[in-house]
């Protein structure tokens, strides 16, 4: 790679380049309008490639009965289509699986913007193409300019024909684009000659659509789009090579999404701005307390706009804030944005007078940011206004209590009327008004205001007993009562909304924090998976399953929130798709939406570790749009946890293998040493006996053979420990008996030493496996005999101390290296300073430790207090000590 | 006429070793390399004793024990490299007279064989008085003496010592001792047995080393040492 100066390759561009490796090449024949000859061009080029020896097939081609086009298909291998029954008709769609299986080098796929019949794998043909490309198959395809997502609005604005089938810009950005261009006049000529098949959508506004001015405009758009694609490719190359320089990249674009119709148009506009400025862009939704009262329609609109933004290549964010302007401003600062795209909603002058225009405030208070303001659709928005917010009428109880309060005040005021003046009575009526407004909201507050003013008027304002007001000044009192009701209710509802919002976000944060804290300590992947399922269920009130790749291509269910979940074929297909592609699939997503479940990939470290499926019993989308940020945080965290556990397992595996290798090497060296040494002695001694050698050699044979036997016993014991095949037969055991038995069996190893048994017969019995205990003692005695200086005493001392029973074997010798006493219990460990010639494998003490721990005892190694040797102690905790049996059993 | 011993072992080297040892000790020896041969030899040669290896090529040696028991009255001494305590107990329960673990001490093997043959024909000694060194145990009168001095034993100590004495020289499993001494009581417990044995040792062995009169067979049972 050529890197000059301090230009560093742009990692994103490199990643894109890397992603292209192994993928098929993608070429799109872009036309300005139907009839320009895209299909013809595609087939011709396909034929040319075929002549070059390339393996070309036709995936799907619509010839619309045109003879020239038909003739061109004849030389090609045409894949048969898949029949899909839909509402009594049979639709014939491209057979994606057949093509994948056929695996040609190049496939021709007409009409990129086509919408597949329901029940197909993907709703859109461009998604099929995407899969073909991923499989490494080259694809040629065709599309008209009005189907390009970001130009959809622009085209509709001058042709007055809106097409529903669109192709995301990101798809076109992957492609090499060839514009199929004929002059408008020629196209109109072809149209007149009946050579153009007209799509259904266009017939309506046919005459208008094919006007010369429209065709010119479309042609310009097509050419510009192609130029842009070339530009983008060049930029990618430049970035990948690190030839940076001064290309524009300083602009960051933010688009503020709202819940109004036309939010998608905002996104497309932002995309155009971003493309024009070649800057990264982000779609942000400011979640104010108002969002809690959104209708489903409004939630969906926001979610759709966000999804569209993602498809068009934007980053998305949802930011909670109490005020839209503040939220946007903070986000602009955080994102270091230079451009803001937002919609201007049609609000009444009155509303703007009261609340201030969001746009005006933003433009005024946000220096350094260019603000693009787009009008949003109004006709739908106006229609919706009436039913946008369900009126908050309050509760009957609220009205009843308010009425009672007003009545109560009236009674009290009547009783006190002789000491109060009229104005003070008016003040008294403020109490029910404020109470009702703050407790039950605006309408009840207004009701209280009206009721209070009526009561005040009727009972106190002269002329008393009528609703007429004689003194005009008293009108003010009535107006004030009503005004107070409005102001109080507004104030309290805002405070309450803020508190709700704060509580909601605190809840979310607390949940996330709790989830993380809980799961941080988990070391078992099954436990973690179950925890994830349960938590997601608890938070979102959905059924949850967690799937991971199983053996081969199958999926394995790691955990589920409910035992009674159901995964059908369609669901499994969606899960597999999500796992394979790392993209969401299933209900509410763009892929396999017929599934009952929505599957989201768990991605970490650039790989998909599993998929999380959520489902809800109702037919609604499993996850509401406003819950998506929470879900995605949970998914991210879950993925990280799974990744951590996976890495830990991997590390453990590596560590295990390493340890095993080390042990194997140590075993081989020690086996060859410890088996051969006594065998050599035995063979040599036996040979000497042939020649009538002195009889003391018989002793050599005996002791060496005993040593061999001891070693083999240890190997067997160790094998049993390693295989986990230790079967304990715990019974009450007399330590004195155990010690004398061991001393007897170890007598050969103890030759040359004096053995002193200091085990008082009054010691309590202990629970132990007699056989294992015997082996422990044998090894400890063997060790003492080997490392104790010749002629010295070996002591076995049993003591009952502080509720524990301690059985110590003490030798008289060099002792253990200070600070490293514990290491003697490691397998094959012989501490430095211990002479190799002494023999022994380092197995013995490891067996002592393994056996003792299996029986619930502890072992300790230390130097003697008097510093003349080592002490090894078996510690029987109080739980292993048998209380003296009832004397009745003994007599 | 010298006692005839059948050696059952699939290893020729072990058979040769046992043959040499036994012939030197004055026995007649016949051999078998697998279970089938062993049964054939037992049926035709009527050996007085069988030294039986449990790891045979054609069948588990344990299954031979009941067959040998029904086809004759030979003493069965199990000689096995297998370490499992359960198997020793099973062998004894199936009717083996004793067991010796490989690798064995030939002197010990011969001693065990001698003891087993001495009590040949009856599973329990018929003697009224059993002796070990200067200790005499009068089974009928329930009196235990060291020299002329009578030792005072509790009832349980008597019961335990009596069952060991009736099988003197041979191992008696824990279950059998418990059944004999605590048989009528529910849930006999090994810890009682341990304490009783400890007390018996105090009285019988002192001041000698632990195990000099009552030997412990690890995990299997106890044996009252014979003077053999």
From TrEMBL, chain A:
Keyword presence, Transport: no
Catalytic activity entry: ATP + protein L-histidine = ADP + protein N-phospho-L-histidine
Location of the Histidine kinase domain: 670-880
Enzyme Commission number: 2.7.13.3
Membrane topology: Multi-pass membrane protein
Catalytic EC class: transferase
Record's keyword terms, sorted: ATP-binding, Kinase, Membrane, Nucleotide-binding, Phosphoprotein, Transferase, Transmembrane, Transmembrane helix, Two-component regulatory system
UniProt cross-references to CDD domains, sorted A to Z: HATPase (cd00075), HisKA (cd00082), USP_KdpD-like (cd01987)
Localization: Membrane
Signal peptide coordinates: none
Molecular function GO terms recorded: ATP binding; phosphorelay sensor kinase activity
InterPro entries in the cross-refs: GAF-like_dom_sf, HATPase_C_sf, HATPase_dom, His_kinase_dom, HisK_dim/P_dom, HisK_dim/P_sf, Histidine_kinase_KdpD, KdpD_sf
GO cellular component: cytoplasm; plasma membrane
Membrane-crossing residue ranges in chain numbering: 397-420, 427-455
Pfam families: DUF4118 (PF13493), HATPase_c (PF02518), HisKA (PF00512), KdpD (PF02702)
UniProt xrefs under PANTHER family: SENSOR PROTEIN KDPD
Protein name (record): histidine kinase
Species per Swiss-Prot/TrEMBL record: Alterirhizorhabdus solaris
UniProtKB/TrEMBL annotation, chain B:
Keyword Phosphoprotein: yes
Cleavable signal peptide: none
Gene3D superfamilies listed in its UniProt record: 3.40.50.2300, 6.10.250.690, Winged helix-like DNA-binding domain superfamily/Winged helix DNA-binding domain
Residue ranges constituting the OmpR/PhoB-type domain according to the UniProt record: 127-226
One example GO MF annotation: phosphorelay response regulator activity
Pfam short name (any one): Response_reg
GO biological process terms, semicolon-separated: regulation of DNA-templated transcription
Ranges for domain Response regulatory: 4-117
Residues of the DNA-binding region: 127-226
Record carries keyword Repeat: no
4-aspartylphosphate, modified sites: 53
One GO CC annotation: cytosol
Keywords tagged on the record: DNA-binding, Phosphoprotein
The protein's name in its UniProt record: Response regulator transcription factor
């Amino acid at each position: 790679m050529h890197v000059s100066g301090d230009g560093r390759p742009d990692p994103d561009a490199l990643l894109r380049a890397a992603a292209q490796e192994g993928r098929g090449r993608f070429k799109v024949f872009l036309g300005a309008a139907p009839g320009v000859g895209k299909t013809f061009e595609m087939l011709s080029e396909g034929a040319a490639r075929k002549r070059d020896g390339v393996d070309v097939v036709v995936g799907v081609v619509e010839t619309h009965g045109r003879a020239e086009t038909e003739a061109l298909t004849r030389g090609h291998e045409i894949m048969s289509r898949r029949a899909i029954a839909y509402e009594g008709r049979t639709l014939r769609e491209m057979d994606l699986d057949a093509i994948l299986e056929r695996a040609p080098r190049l496939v021709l796929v007409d009409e990129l913007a086509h919408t597949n019949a329901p029940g197909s794998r993907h709703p859109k043909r461009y998604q099929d193409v995407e899969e073909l490309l991923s499989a490494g198959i080259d694809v040629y395809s065709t599309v008209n300019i009005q189907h390009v997502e970001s130009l959809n609005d622009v085209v509709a604005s001058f042709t007055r024909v809106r097409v529903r089938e669109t192709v995301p810009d990101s798809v076109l950005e992957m492609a090499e684009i060839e514009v199929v261009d004929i002059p408008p006049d020629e196209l109109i000529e072809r149209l007149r000659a009946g050579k153009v098949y007209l799509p259904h959508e266009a017939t309506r506004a046919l005459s208008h659509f094919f006007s010369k001015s429209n065709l010119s405009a479309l042609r310009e758009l097509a050419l510009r789009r192609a130029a842009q694609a070339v530009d983008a490719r060049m930029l990618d190359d430049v970035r990948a090579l690190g030839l940076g320089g001064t290309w524009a990249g300083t602009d960051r674009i933010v688009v503020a999404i709202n819940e109004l119709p036309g939010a998608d148009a905002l996104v497309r506009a932002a995309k155009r701005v971003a493309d024009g400025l070649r800057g990264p862009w982000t779609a942000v939704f400011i979640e104010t307390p108002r969002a809690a009262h959104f209708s489903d329609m409004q939630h969906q609109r926001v979610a759709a706009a966000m999804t569209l933004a993602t498809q068009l290549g934007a980053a998305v964010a949802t930011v909670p804030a109490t005020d839209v302007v503040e939220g946007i401003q903070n986000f602009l600062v955080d994102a270091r944005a230079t451009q803001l795209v937002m919609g201007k909603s049609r609000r009444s002058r009155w509303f703007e007078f009261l609340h201030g225009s969001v746009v005006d405030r933003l433009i005024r208070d946000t220096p350094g940011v260019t603000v693009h303001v787009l009008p949003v659709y109004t006709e739908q928005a106006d229609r919706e206004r009436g039913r946008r917010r369900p009126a908050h009428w309050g509760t009957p109880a609220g009205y009843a209590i308010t009425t009672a309060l007003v009545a109560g005040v009236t009674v009290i005021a009547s009783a006190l009327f002789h000491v109060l003046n009229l104005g003070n009575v008016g003040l008294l009526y403020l109490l029910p008004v404020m109470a009702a407004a703050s407790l039950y909201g605006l309408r009840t507050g207004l009701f209280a205001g009206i009721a209070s003013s009526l009561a005040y008027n009727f009972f106190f304002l002269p002329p008393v007993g009528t609703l007429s007001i004689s003194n005009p000044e008293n009108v003010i009192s009535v107006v004030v009562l009503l005004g107070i009701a409005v102001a109080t209710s507004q104030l309290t509802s805002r405070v309450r909304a803020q508190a709700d919002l704060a509580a909601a976000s605190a809840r979310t944060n607390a949940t996330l924090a709790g989830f993380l804290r809980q799961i941080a300590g988990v070391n078992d992947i099954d436990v973690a998976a179950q925890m994830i399922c349960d938590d997601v269920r608890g938070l979102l009130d959905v059924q949850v399953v967690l799937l991971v790749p199983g053996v081969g291509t199958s999926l394995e269910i790691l955990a589920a929130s409910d035992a009674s979940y159901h995964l059908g074929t369609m669901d499994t297909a969606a899960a597999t798709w999500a796992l394979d592609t790392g993209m969401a699939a299933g209900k509410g997503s763009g892929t396999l939406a017929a599934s009952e479940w929505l599957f989201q990939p768990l991605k970490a470290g650039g790989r998909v570790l599993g998929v999380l499926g959520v489902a809800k019993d109702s037919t609604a989308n499993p996850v509401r749009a406003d819950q998506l940020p929470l879900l995605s945080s949970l998914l991210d965290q879950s993925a990280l946890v799974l990744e951590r556990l996976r890495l830990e397992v991997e590390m453990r595996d590596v560590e295990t293998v390493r340890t095993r290798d080390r042990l194997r090497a140590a075993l081989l060296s020690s086996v060859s040493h410890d088996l051969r040494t006594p065998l050599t002695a035995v063979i040599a001694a036996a040979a000497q006996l042939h020649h009538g050698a002195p009889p003391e050699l018989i002793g050599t044979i005996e002791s060496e053979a005993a040593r061999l036997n001891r070693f083999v016993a240890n190997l067997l014991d160790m094998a049993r420990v390693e295989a986990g095949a230790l079967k304990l037969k715990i019974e009450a055991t007399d330590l004195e008996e155990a010690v004398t038995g061991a001393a007897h069996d170890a007598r050969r190893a103890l030759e040359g030493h004096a053995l002193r048994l200091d085990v008082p017969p009054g010691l309590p019995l202990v629970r132990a496996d007699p056989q294992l205990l015997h082996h422990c003692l044998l090894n400890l005695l063997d060790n003492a005999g080997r490392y104790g200086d010749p002629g010295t005493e070996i002591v076995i001392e049993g003591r009952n101390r502080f509720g524990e029973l301690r059985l110590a074997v003490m030798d008289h010798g060099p002792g253990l290296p200070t600070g490293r006493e514990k290491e003697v219990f490691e397998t094959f460990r012989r501490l430095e300073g211990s002479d190799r010639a002494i023999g022994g494998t380092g197995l013995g003490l490891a067996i002592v430790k393994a056996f003792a721990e299996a029986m619930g005892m502890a072992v300790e190694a230390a130097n003697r207090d008097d510093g003349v040797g080592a002490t090894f102690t078996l510690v029987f905790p109080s739980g292993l000590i048998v209380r003296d049996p009832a004397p009745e059993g003994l007599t | 006429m010298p006692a005839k011993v059948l050696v059952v072992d699939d290893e020729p080297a072990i058979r040769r070793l046992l043959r040499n040892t036994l012939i030197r000790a004055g026995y007649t020896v016949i051999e078998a390399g697998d279970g089938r041969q062993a049964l054939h030899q037992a049926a035709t040669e009527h050996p007085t004793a069988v030294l039986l290896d449990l790891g045979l090529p054609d069948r588990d040696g344990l299954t031979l024990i009941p067959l040998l028991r029904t086809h004759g009255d030979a003493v069965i001494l199990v000689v096995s490299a297998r370490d499992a305590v359960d198997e020793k107990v099973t062998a004894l329960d199936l009717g083996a007279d004793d067991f010796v673990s490989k690798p064995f001490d030939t002197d010990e093997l011969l001693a065990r064989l001698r003891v087993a043959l001495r009590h040949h024909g009856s599973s329990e000694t018929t003697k009224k008085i059993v002796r070990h060194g200067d200790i005499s145990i009068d089974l009928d009168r329930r009196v235990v003496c060291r020299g002329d001095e009578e030792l005072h034993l509790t009832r349980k100590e008597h019961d335990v010592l009596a069952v060991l004495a009736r099988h003197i020289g041979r191992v008696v499993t824990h279950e059998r001792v418990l059944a004999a001494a605590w048989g009528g009581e529910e849930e006999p417990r090994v810890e009682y047995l341990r304490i009783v044995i400890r007390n018996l040792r105090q009285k019988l062995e002192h001041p000698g080393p632990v195990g000099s009169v009552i030997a412990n067979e690890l995990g299997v049972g106890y044996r009252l040492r014979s003077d053999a």
